[in-house]
Amino acid sequence: MTQHVVIAGGTGEVGRQLLALLAQRPELSVRALVRRPGSLPVASNLEEVTFDFEDAAAYGPLFGPPCDLLLIALGTTRAKAGSTEAFLRVDRDYPLRLISALATTRPGAKVGLVSSVGADRGKGLYLGAKATVEGELATSGLANAIARPSFLRSDRREFRLLEALVNRLIAPLWLALGRAAFAGSPGWWRWAPVHVREVAEALLEASLSLKPGQRRVLEGPDLHPGPVARWGRP
Ligand SMILES: NC(=O)c1ccc[n+]([C@@H]2O[C@H](COP(=O)([O-])OP(=O)(O)OC[C@H]3O[C@@H](n4cnc5c(N)ncnc54)[C@H](OP(=O)(O)O)[C@@H]3O)[C@@H](O)[C@H]2O)c1
Q1: What are the NAD(P)-binding domain coordinates in residue numbering (predicted)?
Q2: Does the pLDDT of residue 193 top 90, yes or no?
Q3: What is the pTM of this model?
Q4: Mean of the per-residue pLDDT values for the chain?
């Protein structure tokens, strides 16, 4: 039976990986919410929907058409957004509106959320926003899977200094040392830089297999099955 997926953030680094995986699954019918038309590559099971995230009234009708799974991979940076308020709208308020509208219209649906390592502590602007969204999911009654990656590895076209440093210097060292000496340490892998493809794969599989009311958090070894498994760890 066809399952209906809605994705927000499909043009981002993790989102593009999610869409590539979804494109290989003809049993899934996908609606991707984008800000600008023509943002996404064509796929036979994909419908691109131009969506005004600022329009609070637009969220309810989104889930009139069927939705079994909502994937949220939205995000920005304070610098890119231009202000704290603008940052919070993207990282906190849009996800909150999506979750609330889905819970009202389709309480049996599931959610897959890209959050961040440290969101369970929720300190500061960035992690506070992530913690608020995770908290809303927890009380929504919706089955949900939350990915909490550390630094993301990707081929992002936009230059971000911290990501470039992590990708080129810290990640290779961190991963090599982890495989050699800390293969069995969940704490080590929790903070290890992780490729966007691995996050997308883990989140999509976990989200699709959720049972009603189930909640899962994916972090550390859940997002690094390759290195950890290769070095003999469960
Ligand atoms: N970067 C890291 O190291 C890292 C680490 C841990 C967790 N995370 C989290 O992982 C998630 C995904 O990260 P990512 O690097 O894949 O994100 P990304 O590449 O920056 O993509 C962000 C997505 O959000 C959308 N977006 C941004 N501003 C928007 C706005 N004002 N209105 C509507 N949509 C907007 C973008 O759409 P457009 O294409 O239209 O801009 C894009 O689809 C984020 O929540 C991020 O906080 C990131």
Answers
A1: 9-156
A2: yes
A3: 0.95
A4: 93
